[in-house]
# Entry
Amino acid sequence: MSWGFLRDLLSGVNKYSTGIGRIWVAVVFIFRLLVYIAAAENIWKYEHDEFECNIKQPGCENVCFDHFFPVSHIRLWALQLIMVSTPSLLVVFHVAYRENREKRHNQKLYKSPGKIDGGLLCTYLISLVLKTGFEIVFLVLFYKLYNGFKVPRLVKCDIKPCPNTVDCYISKPTEKMIFLYFLVATSCLCIVLNLSELSYLIFKYSMKCYLKRYIEKCQ
Amino acid sequence: MDWGALHTILGGVNKHSTSIGKIWLTVLFIFRIMILVVAAERVWGDEQDDFVCNTLQPGCKNVCYDHFFPISHIRLWALQLIFVSTPALLVAMHVAYRRHEKKRQFRKGDQKCEYKDIEEIRRQRFRIEGSLWWTYTSSIFFRLVFEAVFMYAFYFMYDGFRMPRLMKCSAWPCPNTVDCFVSRPTEKTVFTIFMIAVSSICILLNVAELCYLLTKFFLRRSKKAGNQKHQPNHENKEETKQNEMNELISDSCQNTVIGFTS
# Structure
C-alpha cells in the first residue's frame, strides 16, 4: 500500500472529469505527488537527528523539537495530498452506483452513466467544493502552526528540562522553505483550477436550463 | 508512484513525436532519470551527515551547510527533470482532445469520419500539422526555456559546476572562520558534469527538433503555394462542384425545416 494506490484510484476519476478536472489531476500527480516523493521526502528524512541544540542536557533537544514541530511539515503535506484527492472518489462511487442500478433493472436508465448531469452533477460539484475546502484548511493550518511559511535557521527554546533559553538549529531551513513555497504555489493553482471548474459547470448547466425553459415557453 | 508513472504518461506522447523527439525522450529516461535514481541519489544520500566542520560549536555545521547548499543538487535535478518533462503533456492533452472529437464524430455517424471502429481511432497516430504543430513547437520551446533556466540557476547558485573539498564558513554561531569539508567532492563533481553534459545534449536535440519542424513547415507552405499556382483551373472546377453540392444540401435542409414547422 503506497502512493501508487492513490495514483490508480485517481486515474479512474480522470475518465469522468471535465477538461479542467483532467488538468487538475495532472497537476496533482506531477507537481505535487511526484515532487513530494522524488524530492521533498528526503529533505525531511533526518530532521530530528539533524536538529541540534546548544546544550548537553538530555531530553532538551527532544522537548524543543516536539514544541516547534508538533506535526512535521512533510506529514501535513502527505495528509493534505490524501484529503484533497479523496473527494473525487465520490464521483467514482456515484458512477458505479448508476451502473449497478442499470444492471439490476436490466434496462438503460441513463443516457450514459458517466455523463455529468442530474445527481452526478451535484456529486461532482460537492466534490469540487470539498476539494477546495480541504486545500484552504490545510494552507491555513500550515500558516497558523508555523507562523507563516518561513523556516528559521535558529529557534530559542526554554522548556523544561532545558535549564535556560537554549539555541536550537534546524537543518536545511532554506531548502525546506523553498519546497514549502512550492507546495503553497501548487495548492493555490489547484484552488484556482477547482474554482474555474465550479464556475464553468454552474454556468454551463444554468445556460442549458435557461435555454430549455425558453424553448418550452416559445412552444 | 515514482518516475515510472512519469514514464507511462510520457510514453504515450512518444507515438506522436518526431524521431528527434523520440531520441530526446530516450536520453531523458536513460541518461538522466535512471542515473539520478540509480546513482546520483546514493552519492548525495549522506551529504549532511558527512558534512564535517572543524568546530564543536553546536549549530555551526547546520548553519554552514544551509549557507553553502540552499537547495541540494539532487533536488534541483529532480525539479529540472519534472519541469522539462511537463511540456510534453500539452501534446498529450491535444492528442487526447483530437481523439475525443473523432470519437464523437464517429458516434454521430458522420460520413466524413473515415474510421471503421473506435479501436482504430485509439490506435491512430496523428501527424504533426495544423494546430498540433503549434502545440508541439510550443512544448519544445518551453522545454528549452526550462533547461536553460535550471542550468543558469545551477551555475549561479554554486559558482560553477565544481564541488570544492573545503569551504570556509563564518556564519553565526560559528565562533570564527571555520573549515568545513564536503563529503565525496570528486564523485559529486563527476556526476554534476555528467548531468550538465546530458542537459546540453538535450538542449541541442530540442534546438535540432525545432529547426526541423520549422523547415518542414516552410517547405510545406511553399509546396502548397507552388501547387496552387500550377493548377488554378483544376482547383476552381473542384470548388464549383463543392459549391453546387453545398447549395443542394442547404436547399434540402430548408425544405425539411419548413415541412417540420408547418
